[in-house]
Fold this sequence. Notes:
Largest sheet: 7 strands, antiparallel
Strand order of the largest sheet: 6-1-2-5-4-3-7
Oligomer: single chain
Helix content: 25-40%
Distance between the termini: 28 Å
Radius of gyration: 18 Å
Strand content: 25-35%
Bound molecules: nicotinamide-adenine-dinucleotide, FE2/S2 (inorganic) cluster
Shape: globular
Number of helices: 9
Order of helices and strands: EEHEEEHEEEHEHEHEHEEEHEHH
Amino acid sequence: xxxxxxxxxxxxxxxxxxxxxxxxxxxxxxxxxxxxxxxxxxxxxxxxxxxxxxxxxxxxxxxxxxxxxxxxxxxxxxxxxxxxxxxxxxxxxxxxxxxxxxxxxxxxxxxxxxxxxxxxxxxxxxxxxxxxxxxxxxxxxxxxxxxxxxxxxxxxxxxxxxxxxxxxxxxxxxxxxxxxxxxxxxxxxxxxxxxxxxxxxxxxxxxxxxxxxxxxxxxxxxxxxxxxxxxxxxxxxxxxxxxxxxxxxxxxxxxxxxxxxxxxxxxxxxxxxxxxxxx
Length: 279
Ligand code: NAD
Ligand code: FES
């Protein structure tokens, strides 16, 4: 069992959870993920690492309560334990050699982009971090990102933080100002990553995107997480989750994402119905 050490609501939708998993904490790197199961009968869900503390033996995950399992996970408390917590899975993000990077987080993707920004900052890279949220109440990790960036730009769709616009507008502005990035890394909604890649392509800036398709086994066996990259289908769980942003077929990824929405909503209905019967 994997004890939960700390649980904290970061906003109305998003929870940060610190889990005791010493072996994983020693090995996990930015970009890698774990597969967890709440109990023996629960579904496996992949969650990308937000932070880790090898000395304390803990791994931090940040998640949005959107599906049946994440809604249940958000109700768990410190002192309870998870049945499974398997990892590290996937490949670490290739960050070596970057000197001037721009890390972009869209919504919850900001939590996944944070360890990359932290790693780059700790390794002497100049790091701009651009994040985007629907409104100011959803802003995540502002203090943490301030501590590991050269410059933080927070955009909101409704302008409620005084900075209205999409992350791509801030990125274009920084490029126009002569930012001269040698790496752009984007984590967030597929549509956001599509337009980040379209923004950097004319300048030939190396761009990595973190793909987050449905995952079932996390080991390359089920085929659920296929992503079209150039002419081939690759598996996000074993070949990714990061891919060359200029080669990913985002429209195909969005089509595949929609396929599973109905299944998720049925799982949510079954769970709510079960809870009503148990009440
Ligand atoms: P959201 O829909 O609120 O979007 C966040 C920000 O992305 C927006 O504020 C905007 O700045 C930017 N954005 C959105 N559409 C854009 C467009 N068309 N062009 C340019 N920029 C655009 O995000 P959310 O509701 O918090 O959802 C988070 C998303 O992140 C989910 O889709 C989730 O699947 C994804 N995610 C991905 C990973 C990963 O590893 N890749 C991890 C966690 C979450
Ligand atoms: Fe099954 Fe990747 S999750 S192949």
